[in-house]
Amino acid sequence: MIPSPSFNNISFFQPPAFLMIGIPGLEAVHGWISIPFSSMYTVALAGNCLILLAVRRTPSLHQPMYYFLSMLALTDVGLTLSTMPTTLAVLWFDHRLIGFNACLAQMFFLHSFSVVESSVLLAMSFDRFVAISNPLRYASVLTDSVIIRIGVVIVARATLSLLPVPFLLKRLNFCPNKTLLSHSFCFHPDVMRRACADITINILYGLYVVVSTAGVDSLLIVLSYTFILCTVLGLASPRERIRALNTCVSHILAVLVFFIPVIGVSMIHRFGRHLPPIVHALVAYVYLVVPPVLNPIIYSVKSRPIREAILWVLRRKCQS
């Protein structure tokens, strides 16, 4: 447990560590709960690494669409690795302590990868828009150098958006008796509410980050698909319409898998404070764990080139 000396006459306090909790109210069955969590983390890491290997080793997949898919897979690996160590440490070994600075670092990477994922999904919608509305210029618009610049902008955007968050938290005076987090990882809305200080700036900046990243990205994705739909409806052949829309199905599913939990977790943390802690925990796990698990499944099922490339990689591995 965290040492509890006398805190009288201390005007500013930052805890040496926070105490994490797995799933509130289900601590007695954490051992059993660890089984599905371990399975999901394994599927997320294996599936996304297979996609990265498949795209790298299959020359026919060296196209803008699959480069963006590789960005999404790499982001999902990062998002998974951000929460996996502390979550499994709590569920497997009941190791609940995380240092204050380590907590801020985990929170920074966790939310940064989330912003990167939102940005990559936006870039993928732009890719689909160009491919469908102007297929003859597709290769000349989305060149390798353009894709690299898009990737750099995405990483810079996430880093600059989240960089102030740890420093805004370090300025706060925390409550000595409020060091218990309600998740098995450091989540910004959870950490800032452990403070015994005015957190208005933190709330407003957190809201700004959500609106300026996921909010703007979701609107631009909807706008992209509005233009795509107008283009598709203008095609003469019904078969061409269906074929054009089929190229978007995987991306639409990935967008829904990511943004629905984002909306849910944002609404619950702002308007659902009266809800039981287990609801907050489960929604956060869905937001952070489920998309990295489902994305490789969606793309391997719906995209024949990806499926065939993954099977080819697996056969090569088995033969060697």
Question: Overview of this structure, please?
Answer:
- The chain is about 75% helix and about 0% strand.
- It is mainly alpha-helical and about 325 residues long.
- The protein has a two-stranded antiparallel ribbon.
- Helix 2 (about 65-95) runs antiparallel to helix 3 (about 100-135).
- The chain is globular.
- The relative contact order is 0.15.
- Its main location: membrane.
- Putative odorant or sperm cell receptor.
- It comes from Odocoileus virginianus.
- It holds the Pfam family 7tm_4.
Descriptive terms for the model:
2 strands; 73% helix; disordered N terminus; single chain; mainly alpha; 12 helices; 320 residues; two-stranded antiparallel sheet; globular
Can I get a quick summary?
The protein is an all-alpha fold.
* Number of β-strand runs: 2
Shape: globular
**Counting H and I runs of at least 4 residues, what is the number of helices?**
12
- Over all CA atoms, what is the radius of gyration? 22 Å
Reading side by side through the largest sheet, how are the strands ordered?
1-2
User: What kind of sheet is the major sheet?
Assistant: 2 strands, antiparallel
Average residue pLDDT: 90
Proportion of helical residues: over 70%
Percent of sequence in beta strands: under 5%
Report the uncertain regions: 1-9
Order of secondary-structure elements: EHHEHHHHHHHHHH
Class inferred from helices and paired strands: mainly alpha
Q: Note the gap between the termini.
A: 49 Å
